[in-house]
Amino acid sequence: MAEKTEQSLFAKLYAIDVSEKIDKKNGLSYLSWPSAWAEIKKVVPDATYKVYERETPHGPVNYFTDGKTCWVKTSVTLNGLEHIEMLPVMDFRNNSITLENIRSTDVNKAIQRSITKAAARHGLGLFIYEGEDLPEDAADGRKREKEEFEQKKQEIEAKKLAEIDQQTKEIRKDAPATVTKTEELPW
């Protein structure tokens, strides 16, 4: 049996550093759908996604409902493996929007977020969702850990910048003075 040397697609996508593409909104981190889709297509050029629809008397619609709220259903297929995601249609506070208040823009945003989350099931940016379904106390602890990590990271970056600033000052101190008169030029 030949030894498999190629990294799995999941591992390859999971290893992509998307941390600089993460946005924050209302205390939550997310990867924008264009960034997620661009990274997917770089690795799997023939990747596809699907938005599921249901039939109604008015024609097909791209959301599902229980008569009270709505959700969307999407999938991302990579190398024949389809991961399906269902996501509620939510407002800016991540609360479900009631059926009578749903707008097409709300559904569109939910579709894009759902596609991004389906891509995460393949590995891309999955770390963003880690701890999302933990009990509240555990999720709070995970959030504190992330905040502490970010604070430590900022402290390290500030220390590095201070060191660079100090080195720059030392270089400038040793550099020759600036020529202010044309008579001082060496030629």
Summarize the structure.
With 187 residues, the protein is of the alpha+beta class. Helix content is 40%, strand content 20%.
Question: What report would you give on this structure?
Answer:
A hairpin with a 2-residue loop joins strand 7 and strand 8 (81-88). The N and C termini lie far apart (75 Å). This protein is α+β, with helices and mostly antiparallel strands and 187 residues long. The model is unreliable at 1-5 (pLDDT under 50). It has helices spanning 9-14, 33-43, 104-121, 136-174, and strands spanning 22-25, 28-31, 48-51, 54-56, 59-61, 64-65, 70-78, 81-88. Strands 3, 6, 7 and 8 form a four-stranded antiparallel β-sheet that branches. The relative contact order is 0.12. The protein has a single domain (9-139), classed as Enolase-like, domain 1 (2-Layer Sandwich).
**Large-scale geometry:** elongated
Quaternary structure state of the chains depicted? single chain
Major beta sheet summary = 4 strands, antiparallel
At CATH's second level, what is the architecture?
Answer: 2-Layer Sandwich
Name of the level-1 CATH class = Alpha Beta
Low-confidence stretches: 1-5
Helix content: 25-40%
Amount of beta strand: 15-25%
User: What are the secondary-structure elements, in order, as H or E?
Assistant: HEEHEEEEEEHH
How many beta-strand segments? 8
Number of helices: 4
Number of domains: 1
Mean pLDDT: 84
Helix/strand-derived category reads: alpha+beta
